[in-house]
Structure formats: C-alpha cells, structure tokens
Design brief:
The protein is mainly alpha-helical. The chain has helices spanning 15-36, 40-52, 57-64, 68-80, 102-111, 114-120, 129-152; strands at 54-56, 84-88, 96-100. It contains seven helices and three strands; from the N terminus they run ααβααββααα. It has a three-stranded antiparallel sheet.
Amino acid sequence: MEEQFAKLHLQNQLCFPLYAASRLTTQIYGPFLKELDLTYPQYLVMLVLWEHQVQTVNQIGNRLLLESNTLTPLLKRLEQKKLISRMRSETDERSVIIRLTDRGHLLQTRAVEIPDKIINSFKDHSITEQEIVLFMHTIKKVISLLSNQLQMN
C-alpha cells in the first residue's frame, strides 16, 4: 500500500528541489544585492537592461517570465531609485519603454563582481563550475519546455 503513494513523497517531486534551489540561491545573492540596494527581482530587471539597454515592459516581462502586473511595481521602485526611466512609446501609447539612467549604468560596474562571488560561494568544492554550467543548461531546457507547454494550454 505504501508503495502506491511513493510518487507523493517529497523527495520524488520535481517541484521541491527546484523550489528549494531557487530559494537558497536567492538567499546567497541577498548580501551582494543588499550592497547595491537591490532586491533579487530588481536585480533580474537590471540584468535584462544591462544586456539589452532599452526594452519595453512587455519585452522585460517575456525575458523574466513575469506578468506586467508583477513587473510594474518593480519598475516603479527602480525608477524611484533613479536607476531607470519609464516613458510611453510615441508610436504606441500602450507600450512603456524602459531605459537605464546614468546611475543605472554606473551600478553595472559594481554588479559585475556578483557572478564570480556566487561561484566562489561554493567553497566546499563538492560541485564543480562545469557541473553548475551543465545544471544551468539543463534547467534552461526545462524552463523552455514548461513555458511552451503553458503557452499551448
């Protein structure tokens, strides 16, 4: 009888290791982001803008897999911190264009150290950088698969 419900054991769920890894990874980023006065979701928005410079709210949302009602408060806070500017598109007033400010560009020079600090936080060497890269590649495939399935539903 117990074997029948083994699928429901926590250790057999795909969702739990993903959830736990996400939560713990976000906690590792915490002290580094605090130095930049950014939350983790704000950092993700800044990563998109550092890479792509100018984006619409929809483009940022698509890249981060976030809805605009989640993204808008993040963008307002980043604007209050003078890291970004928001402006309605002249060609489509439904579209809001997000740009980095000079201050936002300057923050990138401080943030550039974060990825190395994260890799260095794996001090016990029980996982190699190659394993982390392979994991990232695999998880990107899972995200793509799940995103495609959700879009079809």
